[in-house]
Amino acid sequence: NAGVTQTPKFRVLKTGQSMTLLCAQDMNHEYMYWYRQDPGMGLRLIHYSVGEGTTAKGEVPDGYNVSRLKKQNFLLGLESAAPSQTSVYFCASSDSNSPLHFGNGTRLTVT
Amino acid sequence: QQQVKQSPQSLIVQKGGISIINCAYENTAFDYFPWYQQFPGKGPALLIAIRPDVSEKKEGRFTISFNKSAKQFSLHIMDSQPGDSATYFCAASYSGNTPLVFGKGTRLSVIA
Q1: What is the residue-averaged pLDDT of chain A?
Q2: Is A28 exposed, middle or buried (CB count within 10 Å of its CB: 0-12, 13-18, 19+)?
Q3: Residue B13: pLDDT above 60?
């Protein structure tokens, strides 16, 4: 039982490049989330999903897109990376009977 | 607008001492208040949580104290150990499994 798996673990992008972060969970959770963590800023919600095929904006959605085509996967896309998107990205999942389970993060640097 | 304010930003405690981290919230609709613990290179993990129908919850050395009228809750770590050194986040949400809103975190260092 792997829980929440994020790939890749590390990535360096140049400004303007695009990439997709993948999150997979094997707990059959209904809800999935993407947070970013920055020093002194805590965890801020980017986008979330309450079920397959649904997505919603969080606190800091600009510059990101998401898709939830399968219940177990939640993708976070950066269409045109900017240095301000340098951060550690965490995916999490939950359902009505469980707390948030986090992955171990993706450390992204945009130069 | 920060919905959950956490203090202090950092805390140094002697081994065996009590660590106290405080959080204040604004939204009176919040009814779930968890604390998460994060070690370097790892994702946060649930430590302990409370709902507003009780004023205190204890699990081992970890206790949440909750003051509904003051809209504040705190984490107390008794007999703090070097292994407790981590970043702690308070959070809040309301019914319906709405997304958690996190505080900015407290970096705790327990020194021998």
Answers
A1: 95
A2: exposed
A3: yes
Is A19 in the B-facing interface, judged by CB distances under 8 Å?
A: no
Q: What is the mean pLDDT of residues B49-75?
A: 95
In A, which residues are within 8 Å of B44 by CB distance? 43, 90, 100, 102
- For residue A87, the Cα-to-chain-centroid distance in whole angstroms is 11
Closest-approach residue (CA) in chain B for A58:
B99
B46 membership: H or E segment, kind and range: strand B45-50
pLDDT tens profile B87-105: 999 999 987 668 999 999 9
> Per the CB < 8 Å rule, is B46 touching A104?
no
Which residues fall within 8 angstroms of residue B101, CB to CB, at 6 or more apart? A45, B3, B4, B91, B92, B93
Q: Taking phi first (over 0 means left), then psi (-120 to 50 degrees means alpha), and beta for anything else, what does residue B84 get?
A: alpha
- A12 inside 8 A of chain B by CB: no
